[in-house]
């Protein structure tokens, strides 16, 4: 069975996520099921058929909740295994060996996430900190490589504010990972088209996955980076998404909502000369290829 169905794919989202114990803000406990499903149904009317949910261990993941949201909205939601960044790593990252961590991820891919039968179909978002990584974060990357080679499922990463992406790519190359099975996340937050092009030249995929988060970077700057990427001819390995993690991002709290990507950012790209072909690749074709190359 294909991982994705035909249609638009949001490649980096969280149907439910709870980071509030670290951030001490209830807003970061995204647990508004009905409101999320309402927006997912709206996305469905706009041609969205897939959402890649990259909520992993100690983000308070809830695979049954996500499955219910998929059933209620009609959208195919891909679920993940793995671990996040230093502040959110569970104790087992210390207690388990690298091999044991890898075996846990393999189990979730082959048998089911936690105590469910819902199989993970992507590893990550495995993350590095700003401008570097901790020993525990590196251990997670090492385990993810083992699990990826064993199962063939792709890896998706988190770069804090778009930093340390080049080093992530170098690590995967050094460990003989098939770079066509790796996507480096949050690269748009780096703000440099040249920085992103260097990664694309190595053969990895990249994500412009914080669209709409203009408190980090104005969307027009994202568009300028995409113009640079298209001009250089690297249109086959770029994805789009929004990485919504807060209640205040949703429409019911007057946030921009999930549809912003299609209703506002796509027209902005068109107005600034991004081709329809590149837009379709980022939303439809490139995700399909990423998951089909097993």
TrEMBL record:
Binding site residues for a divalent metal cation 2: 125, 158, 186
SUPFAM superfamilies: Metallo-dependent hydrolases (SSF51556)
Any matching Pfam family: PTE
Alphabetical UniProt keywords: Hydrolase, Metal-binding
Domain of life of the organism encoding this protein: Bacteria
CC cofactor note: Binds 2 divalent metal cations per subunit.
UniProt-listed PROSITE patterns: PHOSPHOTRIESTERASE_2
Recorded coiled-coil stretches: none
Statement: the UniProt record of this protein carries the keyword Metal-binding: yes
Cofactor(s), by name: a divalent metal cation
Record GO terms (molecular function): hydrolase activity; zinc ion binding
UniProt binding sites for a divalent metal cation 1: 12, 14, 125, 243
Protein family per UniProt: Belongs to the metallo-dependent hydrolases superfamily. Phosphotriesterase family.
Official protein name in the record: Phosphotriesterase-related protein
Organism whose genome encodes this protein: Candidatus Enterococcus clewellii
Taxonomic placement: Bacteria, Bacillati, Bacillota, Bacilli, Lactobacillales
């Amino acid at each position: 069975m294909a991982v994705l169905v035909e249609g638009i794919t949001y490649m980096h989202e969280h149907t439910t996520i709870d980071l509030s114990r670290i951030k001490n803000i209830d807003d970061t406990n995204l647990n508004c099921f009905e409101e999320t499903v309402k927006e997912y149904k709206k996305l469905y009317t706009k041609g969205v058929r897939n959402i890649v949910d990259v909520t992993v261990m100690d983000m308070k993941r809830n695979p049954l909740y996500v499955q219910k949201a998929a059933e209620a909205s009609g959208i195919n939601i891909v679920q993940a295994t793995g671990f996040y960044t230093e502040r959110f790593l569970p104790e087992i990252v210390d207690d388990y060996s690298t091999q044991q961590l890898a075996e846990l991820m393999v189990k979730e891919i082959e048998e089911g996430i936690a105590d469910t039968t819902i199989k993970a179909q992507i590893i990550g978002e495995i993350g590095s900190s700003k401008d570097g990584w901790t020993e525990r974060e590196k251990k997670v990357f090492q385990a993810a490589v083992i699990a990826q080679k064993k199962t063939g499922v792709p890896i998706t990463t988190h770069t804090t504010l778009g930093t340390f992406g080049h080093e992530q790519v170098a690590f995967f190359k050094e460990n003989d990972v098939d770079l066509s099975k790796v996507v480096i996340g949050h690269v748009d937050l780096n703000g440099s088209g040249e920085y992103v092009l260097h990664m694309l030249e190595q053969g990895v995929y990249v994500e412009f996955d914080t669209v709409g988060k203009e408190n980090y970077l104005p969307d027009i700057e994202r568009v300028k980076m995409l113009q640079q990427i298209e001009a250089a001819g690297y249109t086959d390995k770029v994805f789009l998404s929004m990485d919504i993690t807060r209640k205040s991002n949703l429409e019911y709290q007057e946030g921009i909502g999930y549809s912003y990507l299609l209703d506002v950012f796509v027209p902005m790209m068109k107005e600034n000369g991004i081709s329809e072909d590149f837009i379709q690749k980022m939303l439809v074709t490139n995700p399909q290829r990423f998951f089909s190359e097993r």
